[in-house]
Amino acid sequence: MSINIGKDINDSIYYMIKVMENRCVYTTGHSNRVAEYSQLIAEQMDLSYQTIRRIYAGALLHDIGKIGIPDYILNKPGKLTESEYNLIRKHPQIGFNILSGIKEMKPILPIVLMHHERIDGTGYPLGYSGDLIPIEARIVVVADSFDAMLSMRPYRDKQTLDYAIKELTRHANTQFDGEVVKAFIKVIKNFLKHNKRP
């Protein structure tokens, strides 16, 4: 699935993602995987074709704001200090600011801005809760969290698939939308019937 915008803009977006991921070796391929997982969830939830396209594009660009985060924070091998964590929390707003200058990106701005919001209202940057968070963003946060758990990070080894599924289930209806979690678990179980474990 591709973003329905001009080729020059499309190429520029993929270039920005490549630049961002090349700055942090631990996130190579993360944006594409999150986009694919998000699309599968949206399809499982029987959302409209246009909504699925919007979700895919927003998921692909969800971390673009990390371009504005210093390398030493993105690649720090240990726990972040409070001030460093506060900086990393700014990446959704930075991404929103970057893309808001491109009129074709307007439909996906809420996804980029709100992919770290939580159902219980303790997320960032807006502290929105429940249905105030668009379904598109609620889907991307599940896909994003799942892929992050299964990926190596500077401060920890990658987690197991079983651990990731248990964490999604444990935090359903607090961090994550419970219906989105249910849909994703169905997607993963179906995927595992026909493929190797992620």
Low-confidence stretches: 1-6
**Share in helix:** 55-70%
Encode the helix/strand succession as letters: HHHHHHHHHH
Give the structural class.
mainly alpha
Characterize the largest beta sheet: strand count, sense, and whether it forms a barrel: none
What kind of assembly state do the chains in view correspond to?
single chain
Number of helices: 10
Query: What percentage of the residues does DSSP assign to strands (E)?
Result: under 5%
Please count the beta strands (DSSP E, at least 2 residues each): 0
* Radius of gyration over C-alpha positions, nearest whole angstrom: 16 Å
Distance between the termini: 21 Å
Shape: globular
Provide the residue-averaged pLDDT.
87
